[in-house]
From TrEMBL, chain A:
Cell compartments where the protein resides: Cell membrane
Domain called ABC transmembrane type-1: residue spans: 108-313
Name of the protein in question: ABC transporter permease
Primary location group: membrane
Keyword Membrane attributed: yes
Transmembrane intervals: 9-30, 112-135, 147-169, 189-207, 243-269, 297-320
Pfam families in the cross-refs: BPD_transp_1, BPD_transp_1_N
Family of the protein in this entry: Belongs to the binding-protein-dependent transport system permease family.
Record membrane topology: Multi-pass membrane protein
Keywords of the record: Cell membrane, Membrane, Transmembrane, Transmembrane helix, Transport
Domain of life: Bacteria
Record organism: Actinacidiphila acididurans
From TrEMBL, chain B:
PANTHER family according to UniProt: DIPEPTIDE TRANSPORT ATP-BINDING PROTEIN DPPD (PTHR43297:SF2), OLIGOPEPTIDE TRANSPORT ATP-BINDING PROTEIN APPD (PTHR43297)
Annotated Gene3D superfamilies: P-loop containing nucleotide triphosphate hydrolases
Taxonomic placement: Bacteria, Bacillati, Actinomycetota, Actinomycetes, Kitasatosporales
Subcellular location: Cell membrane
InterPro entries recorded: AAA+_ATPase, ABC_Ni/Peptide_Import, ABC_transporter-like_ATP-bd, ABC_transporter-like_CS, Oligopep_ABC_C, P-loop_NTPase
GO MF terms held by the record: ATP binding
Protein name in UniProt: ABC transporter ATP-binding protein
Domain of life: Bacteria
Membrane topology: Peripheral membrane protein
Chief location category: membrane
Signal peptide start and end residues: none
Organism this protein belongs to: Actinacidiphila acididurans
TrEMBL record, chain C:
Gene3D superfamilies: Dipeptide-binding Protein, Domain 3, Periplasmic binding protein-like II
Biological source species: Actinacidiphila acididurans
Protein name: ABC transporter substrate-binding protein
KW Signal (keyword) present: yes
Domain of life: Bacteria
Cross-referenced PANTHER family: ABC TRANSPORTER SUBSTRATE-BINDING PROTEIN (PTHR30290:SF83), PERIPLASMIC BINDING COMPONENT OF ABC TRANSPORTER (PTHR30290)
Length: 327, 353, 596
């Protein structure tokens, strides 16, 4: 396990470095001139543009810029104009010259909560429904559930989001409208504010998971070792949960690992739909404002998150399936 | 009706005299294409301490029969008729709960292909210990000790450490031994071994069969040995049922079947066994054709399309009239006993030598 | 003047009918507007606001009462993005100007009559709009009594000098540069690097003879200096609270409200500044007890919330953003919104710019003007709701605006291909080739198709070239660009041609990234610019700019104006006194009150 983790972490570092370098090149070297983007209306003032170049360190060679940037993330930076950027330093926003990191640290709890909460919701609902369908295979519940899954599969967050708000928050008043979590000061309120967004976000995922779970469970239940377990006198329930689910879980986790990127995407759309302030809306605004340092930071952080979570998923996979433990 | 093990005995006074008695068993699967008659009126008996071999090609209904005994068929699409009585207890109508209590405790099964038949996710020890905890209420510790004991018994070296291995860390032979340990962990009265040696090489095959026999002598378990290979039966079984298309076509003692088989299908099976003593010049003679579709079995004798000797029977009897299997020693074939004897001695036996 | 960058986001996303004018804010570009419209106001008639200079009496507080207004309550503002800059020195974009008025007082400011909408410039912190001397080169302002920062510290002329000095610091890159370059010339940053170097601007340029007086000594005459003083750059910055770039997140208030909490892009909450004295303020009524800005509210949800007005949304508005295009139809046609909607000109003019370096024959340029299909383009914009047909290079929001239509566009708004053909024959080029660059969004695709069709009818061979919307202005702003026609938008910084004609028509020192997108270089215009700039009589100057814009349109035809952008949005039924500032193109927060 230790070797497995070491190897994966080293691999992840290489991947993240590669991503960072490529995005850095794409963002800071290819466009016409970041200073032109940063100076707004006043770009006809050549002195100003030169000054911005110097402030951004754009007058240095590319490798030096990249090194300064990456180093800044770990040890902080002193910018050429004397501004201090404490670690983790992701540079300064083109849009308003403020350091990037405080903005991100303000936003990531929302996205993380949504991603975790939404994933929990769709895993519980989706896998649960799939298991029930597999258990009731061929009966009416199974058929109803597959129809619901089909509908769930064809809706979109931005479509059902407003409907759900109108119905469950405005009319019925069951749930909060959804707001940004503030875990330290108001954990209960934060939880309330996340229920509806997480449920809505889960809809586009759980239909897929319920179908996958159902077919995986059905497939597992027809495996020879299930028959063996039943031949030993183990009850159907026991066999279902201990044997079939364990086998299906390995595949579900693999699917989940592949879906991590989509989960992040789903969180972003959900943020926009519910007016939450997370990394997603931040990144989208950054794109529209051509705020490259902010985009770069969000991209690096989400890439890192996805890579890290993938390692976690793989580790879980290894825990579930002993055959790959040492692989 | 006579028992197979005591062909000379008088008809039994009551059915419960036998440890296991299967009467007129029908197993049918509903499929999209129609009804599959997997088992079509099968009867046999088995006593404690004895071994019954069930022989036939794949698809002949032998595995289905035994799944039906354990109640492991899929209840949604399977209909079962007839009776299965185990130690005086009727199994065909028994509740799931009753069956679950019997399975693994009173009757156990050793499956073929131990790689897929064991769960890859749990240790061998845990899989052996599970039924012991369930049926005998043993603690985890006791069950683990029992698993180690069983592993030792079936000849796994260093069972104390191997008990924590996963199936994929075992060799094929070891896995089959572990399967046997798992089947025997609760000292069942009936063990059904379904092709227990199919995937193994010849040396290991012999070891596994010896192991089964040794364990039987030790515990007095009744064994049903399912195989497509008459060679496996030779040293192991007491009685044999030959199945074809869901029916028993011949039954007798192992000696009867090997020395004086009566049914052309049994002759075919015999002919397909490789023998160390056989001349290399005489090729193996597989049975021509392929097993019939059970959706739409041939009329009359289901074997007639593949039977070389159907012409010896007058008219189209083979194609129209279903031959009956007599009770006790006998075969379901329209050939006269003389024809059977003559053909075997004159045409079949020479090729077996 | 540029428009909100947030509008750019909306423009690209919604794309439907929303103007992409703000795209210019990206690449060093021109000013523009998010043109959105509403009910069709009578097209092209001079609006009420007159943009004149108010007297000292007009400059005396308190602000005239708004009929029916009461104190108290909290106004909710729903904003799509947020405010990049709260540091007054960095504020230039309209959404920033809309919030600035709540906490930053300036030397002068626009006083808007709550009933008529008449807009005049008055002294805000200053006792009047300024006293000129030395032929318009020296401007003297006297501060009122009782001006205080939010911590009770009196505001002196030194504080204003300090805030002007800050504009020279290297992190101050976004704000307007008028005052700096008027003091030091265009390369002002080389001459002075800001107060953090330990140096002051010498008294010969910017003097504070006493705590109440500040004197600007400009290098050339600037009759429109009072307007420049109304931009947030003259808001006082308290030196002891100044932490350079980080000041952006917690500016010290001199106005009626101060920031009680700010989370960038999420929320901005204002409470009353106890040291603001209404008697000193002729502009701000400040009826509500607080303002609560909810930032980062996505469209069309934002517009839908304004429509529904549930809960606190009853008291909600959107100071600087127009309604979402998807809601426009409902809002314009459903009478229930009429009583709570704002539909006014923005200071932006949409033009089709002709690259005079490539299309050198004025007759060909005139042919383009005649052929241009204004009505079809207005439709592609989303109808009259989005903007009025416009035929002048100056917007109706400029003092002294006059109707002028040399090509008879209003008579034939769908284009006059016959006249165009005739001109092309005259020019000896019956089928000139035109490379047409447009920003690649659905809206501009539609517009470009309408325009290309009409031009082809007149005999032009049009080649359309799509350009990435985010770099559109950078691309068309290159002097050697390979395009013949492209649309731009420009808005005045104050209601005077001085912030339109020099930046967009001065042909000297052409280089990449200036705002003269047609690269027009007309000696007459160049010399007139110098002459009118030196004009000390503001009224005369206003007239002369107007005349020069007419000359440029008729004689050079380097730009074909076609639409005046309009602002349209609704506000919550719980609000009253909602007026509009047509100079900045946003709702005037000063007069708003919460109905009780």
């Amino acid at each position: 396990m230790l070797r497995f983790l070491t190897r994966r972490v080293l691999g992840a570092v290489v991947i993240i470095l590669a991503i960072s370098f490529i995005t850095y090149l794409l963002f800071f070297v290819l466009p016409t001139d970041p200073a032109q983007l940063a100076c707004g209306k006043n770009c006809s003032n050549k002195v100003l543009v030169a000054q911005i170049h110097h402030r951004m360190g754009l007058d240095l060679p590319v490798y030096q810029q990249y090194w300064d940037y990456m180093r800044g993330i770990f040890v902080g930076r002193h910018m050429p104009d004397g501004q201090n950027c404490a670690a983790p330093c992701f540079g300064f926003s083109f849009a308003n010259d403020q350091p990037i990191w405080p903005l991100i640290s303000d936003r990531y709890p929302t996205t993380l909560s949504l991603a975790v909460g939404g994933s929990a919701a769709f895993l519980i609902i989706g896998v649960g429904l799939g298991m029930l369908s597999a258990w009731q295979q061929g009966k009416s519940f199974d058929r109803v559930a597959s129809s619901i899954s089909l509908i769930g599969n064809s809706v979109q967050i931005y479509f059902i989001g407003p409907l759900a708000i109108a119905l469950f928050a405005d009319n019925l008043g069951w749930f909060d409208h959804g707001h940004d979590p503030t875990w330290s000061s108001d954990p209960v309120g934060s939880l309330n504010g996340l229920v509806l967004p997480c449920l809505v976000m889960s809809v586009i995922f759980w239909s897929n998971y319920s179908r996958q779970t159902r077919s995986l469970m059905v497939e597992q239940l027809s495996e020879d070792h299930i028959r063996t377990a039943r031949a030993k006198g183990m009850s159907s329930k026991y066999v279902f949960y201990r044997y079939a689910l364990r086998g299906a879980a390995a595949s579900i986790i693999t699917i989940f690992g592949i879906d991590l990127g989509s989960v992040l995407g789903g969180a972003i759309i959900t943020e926009a739909t519910f007016g939450l302030h997370g990394l997603g809306t931040l990144a989208v605004n950054a794109v529209y404002q051509l705020d490259l340092p902010l985009e770069m930071a969000v991209m690096l952080i989400s890439a890192t998150a996805i890579v890290v979570f993938n390692i976690v998923v793989d580790a879980c996979y290894a825990l579930i399936d002993p055959r790959i433990r040492l692989a | 009706m006579t028992t197979l093990t005591k062909p000379e005995a008088e008809p039994r006074p009551q059915e419960s005299e036998h440890f296991l008695s299967v009467r007129d068993l029908y197993v049918q699967f509903a499929t999209e294409d129609g009804t599959v008659k997997a088992v079509d009126g099968l009867s046999f008996d088995l006593d404690r301490g004895k071994t019954l071999g069930i022989v036939g090609e794949s698809g002949s209904g032998k595995s289905v029969t035994n799944l039906a005994i354990l109640g492991l068929h899929n209840p949604r699409n399977t209909t079962i008729a007839g009776e299965i009585v185990l130690d005086g207890q009727e199994l065909t109508g028994a509740s799931t709960k009753t069956l679950e209590k019997l399975r693994g405790k009173k009757m156990a099964m050793v499956f073929q292909d131990s790689l897929t038949a064991l769960s890859p996710y749990y240790t061998v020890g845990r899989q052996i210990a599970e039924p012991y905890m369930k049926h005998l209420g043993a603690s985890k510790k006791e069950a683990r000790d029992r698993a180690i004991e069983m592993l030792g018994k079936v000849g796994i070296p260093q069972p104390q450490t191997r008990v924590d291995d996963y199936p994929h860390q075992f060799s094929g032979g070891m896995r089959q031994r572990a399967m046997i340990a798992m089947a025997l962990v609760c000292n069942p009265d009936l063990v059904i071994a379904d092709e227990p040696t199919t995937a193994l090489d010849v040396t290991v095959q012999a070891q596994i069969l010896d192991l089964l026999k040794d364990l039987q002598q030790e515990t007095g378990t009744a064994i049903i040995l399912i195989t497509h290979d008459l060679g496996v039966i030779a040293n192991t079984a007491d009685d044999v049922v030959v199945m074809y298309a869901g029916r028993a076509v011949e039954r007798g003692t192992v000696r009867d079947i090997l020395k004086t088989p009566e049914h052309p299908y049994a002759w075919g099976l015999l002919g397909s066994i490789p023998r160390l003593s056989a001349s290399v010049d005489v090729p193996l003679a597989p049975i021509p054709g392929s097993p019939p579709s059970l959706l739409n079995p041939p009329s009359g004798c289901p074997f007639h399309p593949r039977c070389t000797f159907a012409g010896e029977v007058g008219g189209d009897r083979c194609a129209t009239e279903r031959p009956v299997l007599p009770e006790g020693r006998g075969s379901a074939c329209h050939l006269t006993p003389e024809q059977k004897r003559d053909i075997f001695i004159q045409q079949v036996q020479p090729r077996l030598r | 003047m540029r428009n909100s960058k947030a509008r750019l986001a909306a423009a690209i996303v919604a794309a439907g009918a929303l103007s992409l004018t703000a795209a210019c804010s990206s690449g060093g570009g021109g000013g523009t507007g998010g043109g959105k419209g509403g009910s069709s106001a009578a097209p092209s008639k001079a609006p009420v606001p007159n943009y004149g200079l108010g007297t000292a009496a007009d400059s005396t507080g308190p602000a005239p009462a708004v009929p029916g207004a009461v104190k108290g309550g909290t106004v909710q503002d729903l904003d799509q993005a947020g405010f990049d800059y709260l540091d007054p020195g960095q504020q230039y974009v309209s959404d920033q100007l809309s919030v600035s008025v709540l906490y930053a007082r300036t030397l002068t400011g626009y006083k808007i009559d709550p009933t008529t909408g008449k807009t005049i410039l008055v002294g805000d912190m200053a006792t009047d709009t300024g006293k000129e001397s030395d032929g318009g080169k020296t401007w003297t302002y006297t501060l009122k009594d009782g001006l205080k920062f939010q911590d009770g510290t009196p505001i002196t002329s030194k504080d204003i000098k300090y805030s002007i000095e800050r504009l020279f610091a290297d992190f101050e890159t976004q704000g307007p540069q008028y005052i700096q370059s008027w003091l030091y010339g265009p390369d002002y940053r080389k001459a002075y690097a800001g107060p953090y170097t330990g140096k002051d601007i010498p008294d010969t340029l910017l003097a504070t003879p006493d705590d109440k007086t500040i004197v600007f000594h400009f290098q050339t005459p600037h009759a429109d200096a009072p307007y420049a003083m109304a931009m947030p750059v003259t808001a006082p910055v308290e030196k002891s609270k100044d932490d350079k770039a980080a000041y952006n997140n917690h500016p010290v208030s001199s106005g009626p409200y101060m920031i009680s909490s700010y989370k960038q892009g999420k929320s901005l909450v204002f409470k009353r500044n106890p040291y603001w004295d209404p008697k000193t303020d002729p502009i701000r009524n400040a009826y509500p007890d607080g303002w609560n800005f909810q930032l980062g509210i996505a469209e069309p949800g934002l517009s839908q919330r304004l429509e529904a007005g549930a809960g606190t949304d009853k008291n909600a508005l959107n100071l600087s953003g127009s309604a979402d295009p998807s809601q426009m139809q409902t809002l314009v046609t459903d009478p229930q919104y009429k009583s709570r909607s704002i539909n006014q000109y923005q200071p932006y003019v949409e033009t089709l710019d002709i690259n005079t370096k490539r299309i050198t024959n004025p007759l060909v340029r005139q042919a383009i003007a005649y052929a241009f299909p204004m009505s079809q383009v207005q439709q592609a914009f989303g109808g009259a709701a989005q903007g009025d047909l416009g035929t002048t290079l100056l917007s109706p929001t400029i003092a002294g605006w006059k109707q002028f239509d040399p090509f008879g566009k209003l008579a034939k708004p769908t284009g006059d291909p016959e006249k165009a053909k005739q001109l092309l024959q005259q020019a000896g080029q019956p089928h000139p080739k035109l490379v047409y660059a447009y920003a690649n969004t659905p809206k501009w695709q539609n517009v470009s198709l309408s325009v290309a069709n009409a031009l082809q009818k007149a005999g032009f061979q049009v080649v359309r070239k799509a350009i990435d919307p985010t770099s559109y202005y950078t691309v068309v702003g290159k002097v050697n660009n390979q395009y013949d026609i492209y649309r731009t938008g420009w808005g005045a910084d104050w209601p005077n041609g001085s912030t339109v004609i020099p930046p967009t028509m001065d042909g000297r020192n052409l280089s990449d990234g200036t705002n003269n997108y047609s690269f027009l270089n007309d000696d007459h215009i160049n010399s007139e610019i110098d002459r009118i700039k030196a004009e000390t009589n503001l009224t005369q100057q206003t007239k002369d700019w107007e005349a020069l814009s007419e000359y440029s349109l008729q004689h050079d035809t380097a730009q074909v104006p076609f639409l005046f952008d309009k602002f349209f949005n609704i506000y919550g039924s719980g609000l009253g006194g909602v007026t509009y500032n047509s100079v900045t193109g946003v709702i005037n927060a000063s007069t708003v009150f919460v109905k009780q």
